[in-house]
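User: Structure please.
Assistant: Input sequence and predicted structure:
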Amino acid sequence: MELIERFHMDDCKLCNIAHNSHGNRKVQDTVICETENFMWTPGLGAFVEGYSLLLSKKHLLNTGALGNSAIEELQGLIVKIKKFFQKVYKQKIILFEHGSVGDFHSGGCISHQHLHILPTDISGVPEILLKNFEYEIINDIKVLREYDQFGNPYLYYENTDESKYVFKVDVCCNINLFICMDEVKRTVGN
């Protein structure tokens, strides 16, 4: 499997957001916070107030493709974002990522590392995911490297209690994943 690790790809929407130096960003391209390797931006088509994306400035396909220092930087930024939502929205967040590998998007539409951030009062993993996909509970997002290294697409889901799940997805269940994530969005948005 070819490792796609480029600084910027012209045809990648998220690369264009991350590297737009012309100052003509759209509202959804606004940078809320940025570090050396990551940007936090509002999510396009937000289905709940505060929905946002945390994305790599470097063109990588998924979180599992990040190096040690980048993962530590990402984890530190997630802690700050959680504190922000607790202070401003009085809510916790869930995080999820469609872990793309190669040409397979694992349910996502953009093959560029990004975590979806959703403020919510809902706790627990959506039953629809637990019923429809094989999964493992992990302690650290560094485990996602194994999925990336072996070319296995995944859905990463971190609950409001900070429990972390990796749902195993493949081409056969891609449509099921779209249906499940649509149900998750409707549940969290209500």
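The chain has five helices and eight strands.
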